[in-house]
């Protein structure tokens, strides 16, 4: 669906010229700046990397940090989420603020809205916020630069929503958020029919990439400095349905884990109904696959799981966790839980508490159910009162906080290898620590030895071996470097070299600035780097 809506350009909009590379420059010849803001999940964060890559290929440049923070840019793209009830509130709150910013900016600006909520609301976004210039969906990310040009030329809002995937996103130019770790999509879409979820409607049926394409992208990431990759899919372990191999995901894990130079492999998110023992075997047998698993529970009540159309039951779920821990004793397992699904009784909720207690999750993302128009659950009877949902939610959070605290306390005294990251520790400057992720993905804040020179300090992308000295429900502290003879071993990696090269403006294959970790809301994409174009594999690439 393509729609052009009349929307007169501001009177103070700058004159623009079309650059020789197909992008747009200002009348003075300087390139137009951009900022991509991400609301939502890891899939959205990775989609934003593609949006940034396409804009840079078209001749735009990332806004400098100060300008990005002030949203003083020529083009601002909001990549939206539609999973939660407050997703629309977040979008329109942002757009309301940007209306004033756009009016007051001397050079004018363009505002584009993409992602899941754009796919859902379509032209309704421009109707509610007529200062928006471009709306595009989840199936046609590739049209963003063209729509921006068309909107400027026509002085009108451009809305283009495709009903099915036009170009597989992983073939698009990509400006990576991190030089030392990267996302790799192995599939898009979802074939499940969970009654609470709008994702299949917005992202379509599952489509799998060929294994050779995935391995080529992983190798390209490694060649430019990455030592960690996370495989992405709405139901990542359903991979292979498109070409009839139900064991394809386990095979893919082994193959990706064997890529030379790659040190850490993660994946998210699997579905319990499709989780098979061959995946556990692949995790246990592949040293580079990290001892971490995110396994969404959603509810511990079998009755509620049936109403959710989640095709597993609590005993099967706990059985998977038991087998994972038997094969990988130190695995950290995380989850998602929804409280207050329509018709959930107190007895149902107590069952959820029972399963959470038995599962011993290291952490959990807990949500209060919110009806999403267009999903079957939105029309179910027995929608629960807000106060009941809130009270249950607080009980669940209190239980998980206790379990997380106990599980993290058991880590004290352990040696862990921490991949130092940028942006993980908000208080690092005040505490004189650096932060990163252990193999099991726990967040670790670690102290540096007294007198350590900046030249010897670990960089993002380097690995540091430390001993855990303190714990809290949501992080670990490793101050072993402060004790006489305490554990502190730095391994300077080529990923750290790549990070330093980028920081010094010397990188040859720019991935982009390191952003916050997975699941972060409000990631701003806009670092002074160029896109990475990842093509399809050449003839002769072996498949798994």
UniProtKB/TrEMBL annotation:
Domain of life, per lineage: Bacteria
Domain MTTase N-terminal: 32-153
Key word tRNA processing present: yes
Domain TRAM per the UniProt entry, residue ranges: 409-482
Entry keyword annotation includes Nucleotide-binding: no
Binding site for [4Fe-4S] cluster 2: 190, 194, 197
EC number: 2.8.4.3
Record's compositionally biased regions (Basic and acidic residues): 503-512
Co-factor(s): [4Fe-4S] cluster
SMART domains: Elp3
Co-factor: note: Binds 2 [4Fe-4S] clusters. One cluster is coordinated with 3 cysteines and an exchangeable S-adenosyl-L-methionine.
Subcellular location: Cytoplasm
Region feature (Disordered): 1-29, 500-544
Catalysed reactions, semicolon-separated: N(6)-dimethylallyladenosine(37) in tRNA + (sulfur carrier)-SH + AH2 + 2 S-adenosyl-L-methionine = 2-methylsulfanyl-N(6)-dimethylallyladenosine(37) in tRNA + (sulfur carrier)-H + 5'-deoxyadenosine + L-methionine + A + S-adenosyl-L-homocysteine + 2 H(+)
Skewed-composition ranges (Low complexity): 1-18, 521-533
Keywords assigned by UniProt, alphabetized: 4Fe-4S, Cytoplasm, Iron, Iron-sulfur, Metal-binding, S-adenosyl-L-methionine, Transferase, tRNA processing
Family under the similarity heading: Belongs to the methylthiotransferase family. MiaB subfamily.
Subunit note: Monomer.
Protein name: tRNA-2-methylthio-N(6)-dimethylallyladenosine synthase
Organism: Cellulomonas xiejunii
Gene name linked to the record: miaB
């Amino acid at each position: 669906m393509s729609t052009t809506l009349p929307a007169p350009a501001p009177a103070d909009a700058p004159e623009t010229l079309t650059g020789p590379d197909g992008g747009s420059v200002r009348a003075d010849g300087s390139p137009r700046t951009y900022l991509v803001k991400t609301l939502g999940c890891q899939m959205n964060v990775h989609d934003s990397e593609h949006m940034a890559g396409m804009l840079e290929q078209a001749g735009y440049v990332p806004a400098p940090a100060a300008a990005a923070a002030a949203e003083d840019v020529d083009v601002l793209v909001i990549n939206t989420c539609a999973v939660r009830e407050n997703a629309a509130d977040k979008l329109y709150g942002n757009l309301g603020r940007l209306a004033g910013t756009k009016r007051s900016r001397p050079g004018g600006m363009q505002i584009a809205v993409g992602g899941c909520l754009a796919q859902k609301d379509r032209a309704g976004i421009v109707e509610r916020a007529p200062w928006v210039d471009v709306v595009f969906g989840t199936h046609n990310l590739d049209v963003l630069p063209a729509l921006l040009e068309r909107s400027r030329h026509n002085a009108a809002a451009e809305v283009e929503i495709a009903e099915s995937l036009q170009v597989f996103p992983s073939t698009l130019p990509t400006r990576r958020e991190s030089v030392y770790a990267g996302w790799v999509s192995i599939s898009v879409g979802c074939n499940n029919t969970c009654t609470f979820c709008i994702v299949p409607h917005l992202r379509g049926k599952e489509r799998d990439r060929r294994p050779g394409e995935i391995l080529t992208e992983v190798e390209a990431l490694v060649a430019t400095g990455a030592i960690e990759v996370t495989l992405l899919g709405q139901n990542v372990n359903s991979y292979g349905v498109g070409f009839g191999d139900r064991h394809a995901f386990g095979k893919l894990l082994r193959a990706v884990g064997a890529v030379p130079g790659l040190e850490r492999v993660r994946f998210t998110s699997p579905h319990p109904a499709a989780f098979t023992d061959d995946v556990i075997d692949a995790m246990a047998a592949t040293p580079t696959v990290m001892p971490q698993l995110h396994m969404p529970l959603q509810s511990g009540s079998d009755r509620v799981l049936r109403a959710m159309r989640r095709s597993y039951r609590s005993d099967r779920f706990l059985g998977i966790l038991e087998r994972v821990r038997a094969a990988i004793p130190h695995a950290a397992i995380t989850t998602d839980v929804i409280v207050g699904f329509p018709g959930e009784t107190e007895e149902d909720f107590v069952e959820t508490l029972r399963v959470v207690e038995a599962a011993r999750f290291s952490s959990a993302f807990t949500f209060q159910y919110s009806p999403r128009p267009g999903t079957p659950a939105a029309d179910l009877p027995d929608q629960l009162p807000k106060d009941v949902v809130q009270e249950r939610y607080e009980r669940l959070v209190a239980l998980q906080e206790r379990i997380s605290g106990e599980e993290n306390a058991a880590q004290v005294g352990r040696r862990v290898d921490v991949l130092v990251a940028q942006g993980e520790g908000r208080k690092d400057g005040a505490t004189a620590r650096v932060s990163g992720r252990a193999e099991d993905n726990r967040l670790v804040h670690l102290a540096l030895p007294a007198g350590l020179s900046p030249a010897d300090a670990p960089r993002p992308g380097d690995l540091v071996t430390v001993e855990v000295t303190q714990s809290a429900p949501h992080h670990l502290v490793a101050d072993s470097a402060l004790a006489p003879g305490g554990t502190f071993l730095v391994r300077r990696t080529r990923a750290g070299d790549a990070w330093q090269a980028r920081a010094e403006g010397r990188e040859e294959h720019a991935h982009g600035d390191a952003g916050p970790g997975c699941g972060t809301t409000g990631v701003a994409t806009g670092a002074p780097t160029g896109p990475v174009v990842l093509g399809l594999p050449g003839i002769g690439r072996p498949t798994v």
